[in-house]
Amino acid sequence: MKKLPNVSVHHVQSHQDRATPLDQLSPIALLNITADELASTAYDSSPFEELVPMAPGVGAHLEINGKTVVSKYRSTSRDIRRTQNIKVWIKEKTGMADNAFDQVDWQSHTMAVSRSQLPHPFIVKLLHQLLPVGTVIHI
């Protein structure tokens, strides 16, 4: 950045909004707050980016399935390892073709399941048709 013409770099103290009302902050401080909110949203939304070339000076970066992992390395790699086994199991159990499986919006599915107030074991049994509903039991 220092090599770019007409660019000045200076430090802006973070989290000024914690102690000072917004209407009393400088425009640069307000921009810093907005940038921090946008960065947090991007960080939380996905640990992946499309394949990103490695920046000069970076010792290493993690690529999985053609995408660059930019955060949450440990949990992301663990989730991907587990997900592959789950995909195979679901396809075998349901007879679902690869293209049909790939068309499912799994992120929406995950959000719906995780936000439900029903007990998690009940949801899992319901989704996999393991509940004794609609059957007659003869004793």
The major sheet is characterized as: 3 strands, antiparallel
How much of the sequence is in beta strands?
A: 5-15%
| CA-atom Rg in angstroms | 23 Å
Through-space gap between termini: 78 Å
3D shape = elongated
Helix content: 40-55%
Number of strands: 3
Q: Whole-number average pLDDT? A: 80
Sequence stretches where pLDDT stays below 50 over 5 or more residues: none
The helix tally amounts to 5
Strand order of the largest sheet: 1-3-2
- What class, by secondary structure content? mainly alpha
Order of helices and strands: HEEEHHHH
Written account of the structure:
With 139 residues, this protein is mostly helical. The protein has a domain at 1-45. The chain is built from five helices and three strands. Strands 1-3-2 form a three-stranded antiparallel β-sheet, covered by helices on one side. Strand 2 (62-64) and strand 3 form a beta hairpin. The radius of gyration is 23 Å and the shape is elongated. The termini are far apart. The mean pLDDT is 80.
Topology, element by element:
Layout: H1 27-45, E1 48-50, E2 62-64, E3 67-69, H2 73-94, H3 98-103, H4 106-115, H5 120-127
Antiparallel strand pairs: 1-3, 2-3
Compact summary:
The protein is mainly α and 139 residues long. Helices cover 47% and strands 6% of the residues.
Which key features would you list for this structure?
single chain, 139 residues, 6% strand
